[in-house]
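Issue 218. Parser rejects a valid record. Input:
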Amino acid sequence: MSYPATMTVERPERMANWRPIGNMILALPHYVILNTVLAAAASVTAVVAWFAVLFTGKLPPGIAAFHATYVRYRARTFSYMAFLTDTYPPFDFSPSTDDPGGAGITVGFSPKLEGRNRLMVLFRFIVPFAWLTLIGMMGPAYGFELPAWGWIVALVLGAVLIPAAVFSTLAWVVSNVAAVIGAVAVIFTGRWPAILFRLTAGWVRVDARLWAYSMLLTDKYPPFSMD
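Output the parser choked on:
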């Protein structure tokens, strides 16, 4: 399916039996970097990008390249954790919309830099949606309740993302079921069943499209498809 964010990964003929467990452990450094340093940096640049596109109709090329790198890093990390590939992803943070290779998967982008849909961007402000949701979940443990207006702001500014996020969650559930069954197959046979591999890879692809759209790399809505 044609989309400005693409993710392709080839099913290996054989895979070491220890990969389903080993890959998850080996991927921990990437997972920590993704959800700390990169996530924090992406939150800041997402705010800058939102205002830039909203007021100028243009996405700065440097920010587009960094956002592409962030989404690619997500896809590489999750693909390796899901033992879709046995190639260890490099610690590559060089901003680029083109995949430099070397990770066992290919994640490419065709960002739209000019002529942006400002109205769609207005209701695609992922940062407050994500952070206010996190505050709402963790706040009660520290005696803090998120006020009603906070939820309203989050829902309004992130409204466009909600259908795609719901689909991504459903795809994630399907992918996890497929990955568990696939893990058993790989552990005992060293082979990935084709349909289970496709379903497991499907969520990584859906996630890459959702984040490419969320990070304003494109105005084209993510398709409701795992292919």
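Fixed in the parser; the record now loads. The mean pLDDT is 89.
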